[in-house]
Write a structure and sequence with these properties.
Low-confidence stretches of chain B: none
Number of domains of chain B: 1
Largest interface: A-B, 27 and 23 residues
Number of strands of chain A: 15
Structural class of chain B: alpha/beta
Number of strands of chain B: 6
Radius of gyration of chain A: 21 Å
CATH architecture of the largest domain in chain A: 3-Layer(aba) Sandwich
Largest sheet of chain A: 7 strands, mixed
CATH superfamily of chain B: Pyruvate-ferredoxin oxidoreductase, PFOR, domain III
Strand order of the largest sheet of chain A: 3-2-4-5-7-6-12
Number of helices of chain A: 13
CATH architecture of chain B: 3-Layer(aba) Sandwich
Helix content of chain A: 40-55%
Distance between the termini of chain B: 16 Å
Strand content of chain A: 15-25%
Mean pLDDT of chain B: 94
Helix content of chain B: 25-40%
CATH class of the largest domain in chain A: Alpha Beta
Mean pLDDT of chain A: 97
Strand order of the largest sheet of chain B: 2-3-1-4-5-6
CATH topology of chain B: Pyruvate-ferredoxin Oxidoreductase, domain 3
Oligomer: heterodimer
Radius of gyration of chain B: 15 Å
Order of helices and strands of chain B: EHEEEEHEHHHH
CATH superfamily of the largest domain in chain A: Thiamin diphosphate (ThDP)-binding fold, Pyr/PP domains
Largest sheet of chain B: 6 strands, mixed
């Protein structure tokens, strides 16, 4: 039986970490992730987890410790945000390239400069080509659920890639919500015991991690890594379905909300998807056939499935909470247009919004959808910028 | 009061100054609501918070899952923990004529309305600072305002709120502070005045 709790997003994820009880957690605080690790450190201090908690001196060290522990054969978790993620970047790429199934929660926050502690997706979107699987949560419940499923996805022998689970800073991390927590035994049974395939500490079967790899084999290893990400397309829906049966909640690579007969479809991810559902209900009450596609898995990007989901619309509006400077639109927009290229000629309008935590309201989203439907938007647009 | 929004949702906006407990109150009501089996959210505006600066807190309560993730711009209820905020912040922004405004002040609702030229809303007042001084010994008006909110809106039962308050304050405060807060909630429940 699940327990209903009043939890912030940060506390919901720390509950998931307590239940997962990883072998090693590397801990370094950064707003808005601090409370997440602080709560997990409480669990550690209270003897509720058997984890080896490593308090490191920087995020670069946090990911370095995670890589070392994971290569040694441990189940490893960490968490960060914004500039912390930027500082660990070098090792983030190495973690994926070394095929280490580390899981990390990123509490989305705008990158400096100027300094800003609030939500946008510039941190994790900047990481979209590091080779990590990426999951985005609409609410604290999903942040909890994703943290648990991430372990199974990462450790699947056909995948062996690290997974990054995102939740919106402050909007979710610091908002108290109703969250259903599974029984500890259910979570432990779902994730199972971790049996590393090639542990560095197995001295009877010696292996090498991270050797020099020049023109001879580097390319082949990258090709295998691309293959692992392709395998994740098959594995992720299986694990979503299994966890869906356990939790009674539905998970799909993306969620279709009233999009089947929609004339205009909004595409977004994160907490804004919830606000967008309310906007769509209000528009539908006024006779406008609007729908939403909420992305959950951004890497691997579900381009094939999205073509099918979006093809019936007259117009598509994309909400991007990060900029891709010098590119044609934000990261989600670029992916959607690329997915649709040569397959449909539906106009795709991009809206950059919410940078540095600028709020987005129901009326903003209704306005975006109306403009897209009337064909009155430019290719690149901004919500609420002065 | 009767919720009019889809899902029978009620939206409460809290206005106070840093240190008066607006965030704690917003989260506390959310926690009480979830423990009563409802859906709820509690969150503040996180700015460069500092003692005395105007801040806002938000609580949503609903019979159905809450999907909104934005501050409350169309509140049903506004709670003001510090009367002086009325001079600098438009606390009734988005509040309908039949909305509820609860203010911590020595004034009667009628006097407050005249003094600040408030046209919208049904006004209720309470000297929460005095109650807090008398019962807790510190001018932190959030728990009395919770008592007033519970009385006026009927969104939660007083007994349930008292139980959650005991449970949540126990790890943080000593017996006499908890007892003082309980008295403050009960006194506010009795003393809040309408027009």
């Amino acid at each position: 039986m699940a327990k209903v709790r009043a939890l912030t997003g940060n506390h919901a994820v720390s509950e998931a970490m307590r239940q997962i009880d990883p072998d090693v957690v590397a801990c370094y605080p950064i707003t808005p992730q601090t409370e997440l690790m602080q709560k997990f450190a409480d669990f550690y201090a209270d003897g509720l987890v058997r984890t080896e908690l490593i308090c490191v001196e920087s995020e670069h060290s946090a990911m370095s410790a995670s890589v070392g522990a994971s290569a040694a054969g441990a189940r490893v978790m960490t968490a960060t945000a914004a500039n912390g993620l930027a500082l660990m970047w070098e090792i983030v790429y190495i973690a994926a390239s070394t095929r280490l199934p580390i899981t990390m929660t990123v509490v989305n926050r705008a990158l400096s400069a100027p300094i800003n502690i609030h939500c946008d997706h510039s941190d994790s979107m900047g990481c979209r080509d590091t080779g990590w699987i990426q999951l985005y949560a609409e609410n604290s419940q999903e942040a909890y659920d994703h943290a648990i499923m991430a372990v199974r996805i990462a450790e699947h022998p056909d995948v062996l890639l690290p997974v990054m689970s995102m939740l919106d800073g402050f909007i979710l991390s610091h908002t108290m919500e109703r969250v259903e927590i599974l029984e500890d035994e259910q979570v432990k049974a779902f994730i199972g015991d971790y049996t590393p395939l090639y542990p560095l500490l197995d001295v009877d079967n010696p292996v090498t991690y991270g050797p020099l790899d020049l023109q001879d084999y580097y390319f082949e290893h990258k090709r295998q890594q691309i293959g692992a990400m392709e395998n994740a397309r098959v594995v992720i829906p299986e694990i979503f379905a299994e966890y869906g049966n356990l939790s009674g909640r539905e998970f799909d690579i993306f969620e279709r909300y009233k999009s089947d007969d929609a004339e205009v479809i909004l595409v977004c991810l994160g907490s804004t998807a919830g606000t967008a559902k309310v906007a769509i209900d209000e528009l539908r009450a006024g006779g406008i056939k609007a729908g939403l596609v909420k992305l959950r898995v951004f890497r691997p990007f579900p381009h094939g499935e999205l073509v099918e989901a979006l093809s019936g619309a007259r117009a598509i509006a994309v909400l991007d909470r990060s900029a891709s400077f010098g590119a044609e639109g934000g990261p989600i927009h670029a992916e959607i247009r690329s997915a649709l290229y040569g397959r449909t000629d539906i106009p795709v309008y991009d809206y950059i919004y919410g940078l540095g935590g600028r709020n987005i309201f129901v009326d903003d989203i209704k306005n975006v959808i109306n403009l897209a439907l009337e064909g009155k938007a430019g290719e690149m647009n901004y919500i609420g910028v002065r | 009061m009767k919720p009019m929004k889809p899902g029978n949702m009620l939206e409460i906006r809290w206005h106070g100054r840093g240190g008066q407990g607006a965030k704690t109150a917003a989260d506390f009501i959310a926690s009480c609501s979830i423990k009563e089996g409802k859906y709820s959210q509690g969150f503040p505006d996180y700015g460069p918070e500092r003692m005395g600066a105007p801040i806002r807190g938000f609580t949503r309560i609903s019979e159905e899952p809450i999907r909104l993730h934005c501050p409350i711009d169309r509140p049903d209820i506004v709670v003001v923990l510090d009367e002086t905020i009325l001079d600098s912040v438009d606390v009734t922004a988005g509040l309908p004529d039949d909305g509820v405004l609860i203010v911590n002040t020595q004034d009667s609702p009628g006097d407050l309305r005249r003094k600040h030229g408030i046209e919208a809303a049904r006004i209720y007042t309470l000297d929460a600072t005095k109650i807090a001084f008398d019962e807790i010994g510190r001018p932190i008006p959030n728990t009395p305002m919770v008592g007033a909110l519970v009385k006026i809106t009927g969104i939660l039962g007083l007994d349930g709120v008292i139980e959650v308050l005991k449970e949540e304050f126990k790890p943080k405060f000593n017996e006499s502070i908890i007892e003082g807060n309980l008295k403050a909630v009960r006194r506010a429940y009795e003393e809040v005045r309408g027009e």
